[in-house]
Amino acid sequence: MPGKYHVHLLTVYLLKLYVPPSNMVTKEDIRGWVSGSKLLMPLGDLKPINMASYPELSVKKCYAEFSQRDELKKYFPDSFHKGRQCQKAYFWNIIHSKCT
Q1: By residue range, what is the domain housing residue 21?
Q2: ∠ CA(20), CA(3), CA(87), 5° rounding?
Q3: CB 46, CB 18: distance < 8 Å
Q4: CB–CB of 94/75 below 8 Å?
Q5: How far apart are CA 88 and CA 98, in angstroms?
Q6: What confidence score (pLDDT) does residue 99 get?
């Protein structure tokens, strides 16, 4: 059975989808992707951005606002592991790709 990194690499290179980092993924996320209630972004639609580190634009402050928008809600997890939050690069890449 392949490890979690092998599965992540297979998903990225074979399906050509932008998947969240493995430390963000929960069982509920995988169920959502299979059932269609959650979405993964095709790599062709991704517009990567390198976001600066400003306290006003921290994920902790902005996640509540952006995760409730209808066009973005299906790309973000409903919950995270205890003590975790959305990864900065994934968060801003999804927002930049869908809102511009």
Answers
A1: 4-99
A2: 20
A3: yes
A4: yes
A5: 16
A6: 87
Please give the torsion angle defined by the CA atoms of residues 39, 44, 46 and 48, in that order, rounded to the nearest 10 degrees. Answer: 150
Cα dihedral 37, 24, 100, 68 sign: positive
Domain total of the chain: 1
The answer to whether 72 and 95 have CB atoms below 8 angstroms apart is: yes
Complete DSSP assignment for the chain: ---HHHHHHHHHHHH-EE---TTT--HHHHHHHHHTSS--EEGGG---------GGG-HHHHHHHHTTSHHHHTTS-S---TT----HHHHHHHHHHHH-
pLDDT in tens, 16-31: 888 888 888 888 888 8
d(CA 49, CA 39): 20
